[in-house]
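User: Could you check the structure of this?
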Amino acid sequence: MWSYIFKRLLLMIPTLLGVLLVTFTVIQFVPGGPVEQYLAEARAATRGGAEGGSVYRGDSGVDAKRLEEIKALYGFDKPAHVRFIEMLGRFARLDLGTSFMQNKSVGDLILEKLPVSISLGMWTFLISYAVAVPLGVAKAVRAGSRFDLVTTIIVLVGYAIPGFVLGLFLLVVFGGQLQWFPLRGLTSANWDELTLWAKVTDYLWHIALPVTAMVLGSFAVTAMLTKNSFLEEIRKQYVITARAKGLTERQVLWKHVFRNALIPIVTGFPAAFVGAFFAGSLLIETLFSLDGLGYLSYESVIRRDYPVVMGSLFLFTVIGLVTKLVSDLCYVWVDPRVKFD
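Assistant: Sure, the predicted C-alpha cells are below.
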C-alpha cells in the first residue's frame, strides 16, 4: 500500500505542473491585465480630477519610464518563463504570493474568506447526506411503490432547478416579501453584542436560505445512487441465502446489505466533502452577498489579480489531488477485496 501511495504522490507533481502551466499560458493571452487595469484606473481618476477643475492628461499617454516602473511593480518586466519558474519556487515554499489589488498575502485572503465557505460547505454536506442516504434506503426497500414514485419526482425536480434560481426565489419570497430571513451576510451588524445563544440563532437564521438553495439539488444524485446501489445488492445471491437461513428482513438489510451497498457512497465522501467547500458556491455567495472563496476567485479573475488566481488554483488543485487519493484508499478500508497490486 505504501508503494502505491508513494507512486500516486509522485504522479501528482506532473499533474499539478500541467494544470499550472496551462492556466499560466492562457493568462498571458488574456487582454486587460494588471498593468492595463492600473492605467485605466489612473485615467479614470485623472478624468475625475479634470471635472473638479484640474488639467486632464488621461489621453496624453504614459511616460515610457513610468510604464516600465508599473510593469516592474507587477513583475511583468521579466519574460514569461522566468515569472513561471519564480512562481513555482514560491509555491514550493508554500508562498502563494501577494494580491495585486488588495496588497495582501494570498494565503491570508484565503483564510479570511474560508469561514464563509466552511459554513456553506459543512452544512450542505451534512444535510445532503443526512437526507439522501436514508431516503435512498427507503426508496430501495419500497421500490416501485407510490412512495418511490413521488419521491423520485420530487428529487428530480429539485435536481433540475439550478441552485441560483432557487436561491433567487427564496430570497424574493422569504427574504423580501415575507421578510422572514435576512437578505445578505452571514451574521447581523450587532453580532459582537449578542449572547452566545443569540449568536447561534443569528448565524442559523442567516445561513438557512443559502444552504437550502445549495442542498436541494446536491442530495439528488446521492439519493438515487444509494437507491440503485441497495437494489443491486438486494438481488444478489448472498441476500437470498441470508433470508433462507431465517434472518429477519431488518437483519438482512442492515447487517449484510448495508455495508456493501454503501461502498460507492462512502468512497465518495472525501470528494463530496471537499467539493461542498470549494465548488458550486459562487452564484450563491454572490446572490446572498457572502464574501467567500467562490466570490474571491470570481473577483480575482475579473480584476486580473493573477497571484490570487494562481495561488488559489494551486491550493485547490493540491486539495483535489489529495482528496482523490484518499477516495481511492477508502475503497480498501470499506472493501477488503480491493488490492492495490
